[in-house]
Design goal:
The chain has 134 residues and is mainly alpha-helical. The protein is 54% helix and 8% strand. Bound molecules: zinc ion.
Length: 134
């Protein structure tokens, strides 16, 4: 799934039905979040297939695979909308938390996983439904 990155990659446009579903779930606008696929920056982060910054989700692989993964979509949008955007998550806080607790046990990751777990059953069928129509 994670392909080799390319140097300059313009943001890609999220499918409308996913934006609509995310707007319902988060109860706020989501259109401003940039999705960058095959990102060098995400690739350098190694382990994960995605990483986030303010208003941005950077993917190591292709966006098409991302849009099929409700858990990952919710997890990454949560980081952007509820952590970066609110100012709770900053690079320094993340690094401090990561040094203290590692990746799996840091509070930013725990919260994002919990949010994804709580909403994946709602988002999953919306993605499938749309795919069946094509
Ligand atoms: Zn995460």
């Amino acid at each position: 799934m994670c392909r080799r990155p390319v140097m300059f990659q313009p943001p890609c446009i999220p499918p409308d039905h996913i934006l609509t579903a995310l707007r319902e779930i988060f109860g706020e606008r989501v259109e401003h979040v940039r999705i960058v696929e095959r990102s060098w920056f995400a690739w350098l982060h190694g382990r994960a297939c995605a990483t986030t910054r303010r208003n941005t989700i950077l993917l190591t692989g292709h966006a098409a695979a991302f849009w099929r993964d409700p858990d990952l979509i919710l997890h990454e949008y949560f980081h952007v909308l509820r952590q970066w955007q609110t100012g709770r998550l900053t690079l320094w806080r993340y690094v401090a938390e990561w040094l203290r607790r590692g990746y799996r046990h840091n509070r930013f990751e725990i919260e994002a996983r919990q949010f994804a777990a709580a909403h994946r059953e709602r988002l999953g069928p919306l993605l499938d439904e749309k795919q069946r129509k094509h």
